[in-house]
Specification:
Strand content: 25-35%
Radius of gyration: 15 Å
Catalytic activity: a hydroperoxide + [thioredoxin]-dithiol = an alcohol + [thioredoxin]-disulfide + H2O
CATH architecture: 3-Layer(aba) Sandwich
Number of helices: 5
Shape: globular
Family: Belongs to the peroxiredoxin family. BCP/PrxQ subfamily.
Protein name: thioredoxin-dependent peroxiredoxin
EC number: 1.11.1.24
CATH topology: Glutaredoxin
CATH superfamily: Glutaredoxin
Oligomer: single chain
Keywords: Antioxidant, Disulfide bond, Oxidoreductase, Peroxidase, Redox-active center
Largest sheet: 5 strands, mixed
Amino acid sequence: MTDAVRLAPGDPAPDFTLPADDGTEVSLASLLAEDRKVIVYFYPAAMTPGCTKQACDFTESLDSLAAAGYTVVGISKDAPAKLAKFRERDGLGITLLSDTDLTTHEGYGAYGEKKLYGKMVQGVIRSTFVIGADGTVEVAQYNVKATGHVAKLRRDLGLADGAA
């Protein structure tokens, strides 16, 4: 039984360069070069109910997150073509990246042992990271819930709307 590496605030964020749903390549370094903070979230599978809810919640919050200086990217093991269908089907505004070999997932500790229906299995661990403009992890959240996660993250970042 191997435990996944877990990142913590203050750790350097592992860089990545991954294909996006639109065919471009996106790297963490290029996102940080825009002098913005980056929210990187890992989700198990495009077009599943929980992952759709989470992606739609991030999309709905995109304008206010961008205004506060955040860029949002979602990473899954799905191929770019499936991610493009996901974006189209649900009108997603966030950047979706493909990590089919799970290298980036593993670097962030977002793949490993988890409990699923009471059994221990290997799989994607739904996780969210906030990376500062200097490239260090500011927030590391593992085993987050799909529903309500974006609202909780906004509260954690001090960005809660008037409707608390």
